[in-house]
Specification:
This protein is an alpha/beta fold. The chain folds into two domains: about 180 residues, Glycogen Phosphorylase B (Rossmann fold), CATH 3.40.50.2000; about 180 residues, Rossmann fold, CATH 3.40.50.2000. It is built from 14 helices and 13 strands. The chain has a seven-stranded mixed sheet with strand order 9-10-8-7-11-12-13, with helices on both faces. The longest helix has 19 residues. The protein is globular, with a radius of gyration of 22 Å. The N and C termini lie close together (about 5 Å). The relative contact order is 0.11. The model has no long low-confidence stretch (mean pLDDT about 90).
Length: about 375
């Protein structure tokens, strides 16, 4: 094996939040578990005052002064920057992790920009992203789902690999301990609690208003008292809507684990085949999961209706959740164990890594 072939250089955005930050840490840890050496470069977005976009390109070009000898370049954040050209000239394969749904998020960033300056910056990113995808700037694109690869137009080209959201071995043992710690607090409850998590990013899927609509429809059809907690990491203050709904900002980890782990149901907000990291957290805590899976994406998932409450429409999801809660004693034990067994069978790193690691070894480390 050539010198440097086991060395991976990662390029990471400076300002990462929530799931993206967690995902980067997971992948770096997983690669090191596989015996790869990983050297990390965080892009400096302040090199050119007033332009984060151009600063990141400059920082990526300057990376070549410090980083040498790597066998593959791995970008996080859905985009390669201009430093990739020098890697290509050196014969270093370039891989890009596609996070979320960039063809949805980048234009939304333009629309949601608060100032003209921010709008110009967001427009530059979106324009560059379209060129990056259409010109196929990466040797390999890495997506969580086939849907994400289709959205950026690389699925038909074949130069992509799927790496589903996964859990690491130490996370299983950690969540097992949390589950047992919370067992007494869970106890006998007169009410049932539903939990949902919204993202920092403006992603396609269930929004706050649709979650509240679903909850209110469920509550009218359920005999027991039901409460609803939504964590929206973008807000600062907790808001209560009546005595049954609480919308909170990003919680400290112990509070998050306590509220999630003592909930009787978690609602996943994605509407394609994706299961986000918080859904996997819920599964490890034996919290049943419900989600909408629109018909066009049905059949792409690796979970079944015996494991997750799957609705192909809002009406169907409301019906399933209401039936589950009205027959809670009959259904909860089954779905609680089913999601836990699913994540251990289907989403452990050793299970999901196969295609990704083979791509690294066969394509990038010849």
């Amino acid at each position: 094996m050539a010198m440097g072939a086991k060395l991976i250089a990662t390029v990471e955005p400076l300002r990462t939040l929530g799931g993206v930050r967690t995902w980067i840490a997971k992948v770096v840890t997983a690669l090191r578990l596989e015996g790869f050496s990983v050297v990390r470069h965080v892009l400096d977005d302040s090199l050119l005052p007033g332009s984060r976009f151009f600063s990141m390109h400059i920082s990526d070009l300057l990376r070549h002064i410090r980083l040498r000898g790597h066998g593959v370049l791995l970008y996080f954040g859905s985009l390669p920057y201009l430093g990739y050209l020098l890697d290509r000239l050196k014969g270093v394969p370039v891989m890009v992790f596609v996070s979320g749904h960039p063809v949805y998020e980048f234009p939304k960033a333009v629309t949601n920009a608060g100032t003209i300056h921010e709008r110009v910056g967001a427009s530059l990113v979106w324009r560059y992203a379209r060129h990056a995808y259409s010109l196929d700037m990466a040797d390999t694109w890495i997506c969580h789902t086939l849907t994400a690869c289709e959205e950026i137009g690389v699925a038909d080209r074949g130069n992509y690999v799927l790496l589903k959201q996964f859990v690491l071995p130490h996370e299983v043992s950690f969540y097992d301990r949390v589950y047992h710690w919370l067992k007494e607090e869970r106890g006998e409850k007169r009410e049932v609690q539903i939990f949902a998590y919204l993202s920092y990013a403006d992603l396609p899927g269930l929004k706050l208003w649709s979650l509240l609509r679903i909850f209110n429809r469920v509550r009218r059809r359920v005999k027991r008292r039901v409460t609803f907690v939504v964590e929206d990491p973008r807000i600062k203050r907790t808001t209560k809507l009546g005595d049954a709904i609480q919308i909170t900002g990003r919680m400290p980890l112990p509070d998050f684990l306590r509220i999630l782990g003592t909930s009787e149901l978690y609602i996943e907000t994605s509407i394609d085949e994706e299961l986000r990291l918080t859904a996997l957290d819920a599964m490890l805590l034996r919290v049943p999961v419900a989600k909408i899976l629109y018909p066009r994406f049905y059949g792409r998932q690796d979970y079944t209706e015996d494991e997750i409450l799957i609705g192909t429409s809002v009406d169907k999801l409301v019906e399933l959740i209401a039936e589950y809660l009205n027959n809670f004693d009959n259904y909860h034990g089954h779905f609680s164990q089913a999601v836990y067994e699913f994540v251990k069978r289907k989403r452990l790193w050793d299970v999901v890594k196969v295609d990704f690691v083979q791509t690294l070894n066969k394509t990038c480390f010849k």
